[in-house]
Amino acid sequence: MNERIDDITIVGGGAAGWLMALSLVTMLNKGESKVKVTLIESPNIPTIGVGEGTVTGFPRLLRQLGIKERDFLRRSDATYKCAGKFVGWSVDKQGNDRSFYNPFNNGGYINGFESSYYYHKFGPHGDAKSYVDNVLPTQMMVENALGPKEIGQGDYDSVMPYTYHLHAHAFSKQMAHIAQKRGVVHILDDFVDADLDEKGWITALNLKEKGKVPVKLVIDCTGFKGLILQQIMKEPYQEFGNHLLCDRAIPVPHPHRDIEKMRPCTTATAKSAGWIFDVPIYSRMGSGYVYSSQFKSEDEALHELLTHINDPELKDVTPQVIKMKVGRVRNTWVKNCIATGLAAGFVEPLEASAIYTIEMTARMLITYFPEKGITDPIINRFNQVMNRMYDEILNFIVMTYYTSNRPEPFWQAARNDIDIPPLLQENLELWKEFMPSAHDVEGKFLFDHWDYISLLNGQGYFEGVQFPTEKYLAKPDWVKYSQKMAETKRQLRRHLPSHYELLKHMHGG
Description:
The chain has helices at residues 14-27, 58-64, 69-75, 115-122, 131-135, 138-143, 168-181, 298-309, 354-367, 376-402, 409-416, 422-430, 449-459, 475-495, 499-507; strands at 7-11, 36-41, 51-53, 79-81, 83-91, 97-103, 109-110, 113-114, 163-167, 185-188, 191-196, 202-207, 211-214, 217-220, 237-239, 248-254, 265-271, 274-280, 285-291, 322-323, 327-329, 333-334, 337-339, 345-346. The chain is of the alpha+beta class. It has a domain at 7-51 and 167-240 and 325-374: 3-Layer(bba) Sandwich (FAD/NAD(P)-binding domain), CATH 3.50.50. The strands form six sheets. A seven-stranded mixed β-sheet has the order 6-5-17-18-19-16-20, sandwiched between helices. The chain has a six-stranded mixed β-sheet with strand order 10-2-1-14-23-22. Strand 12 and strand 13 (211-214) form a beta hairpin. Helix 9 packs antiparallel against helix 10. The longest helix is centred in the last third of the chain and has 27 residues, at 376-402. The relative contact order is 0.18.
């Protein structure tokens, strides 16, 4: 198709549709060339208002979209997120659960070597509780429920790196409001089917009330059903069931137990057949059990989740059980159709990557926007980048399960009955001799080698390993580094407000 693309049609609302619409109408219409963006949304599809996490880089997106931080926090019921806390994903030699943090920061170098080598050789210094606690302030600030910025700092400025937890439905409504003010055309109607030309390109969408709508470029945001790319364009969906076992999620909102002690982190607690997330948004908590239906019935999973939440008011709750379609389409861009959100893929919610994949789809479309027409080189490069992104997310999440030593049947199956992606298998063998390095991670979208170091340290993966690099290290260098970090933590604890005080200020009291 060599026709100039000046008209984009998005099918489906929610976070995927409205974030795409807002990103495209904002970023593509700053110059002299203008692009029309239309979003078609069914009035008959209910939304699920769960608490959801985002990843580092999301504040940058909001800044680029011209959204004030305080407005975002208020309208999306948002809180700050500075780390992910993993509880019980492995056990120590006595069989006790381990807990560790994956921070939004790197552990730094000492004389050219990763600080993790020093920690492994010399152990924690002073009162540090873990590797992350020894080399970063993150664990200290989370455990003391501190905010990542001082009250009065500018939008998206901070002392510590952060992103957010948000209410997914409220966030979608906020994006929709801004997008329509900036010119996105909103059509409330049900999508029926699409007309294709002789080469398989979409020429028009057929709607229940409005009838035929001519299109040039279509973005499929129709969720797990994949109504356009998968069902009409027949693009195959590659399931990840041979890599990941969890296929169900039960979300349950519930009140804060003590809002003034709300911590700026997502907590992922390992359970008998999966894990439970605890996401603090401003008005309430959002918890949910992500589990494998092979190892746990719906009733058993709900019982385990409610036992974890421990709120008598929830004893008669009947939440929705979500069947997760874990995997991705073979290609996210086919002819003149691009899928994003759940229509493109989903690698389970462990690393809160869902909104990130939508953002990356928008960024890649803007980078490779076919203003002069859609060509094979554009489509091929776009798909290569997006496929690498999904593969990177898959590798990291598979590793999190695979390196667990929990004894339950589910966890044994997560180690023994799955296919390990080849690059991950190669790296895990290498990391028995060397710590992860910047050269080991291909994609570098969400996870750099520091994320691997933090997680593998937390899982106890390096226990008993003697790294050749350690013979080059001197203990005084480790002590000096550790003392400097300990002083940094003392200063931050003295000056940072509590997470709740900061949120109360940002939300307006």
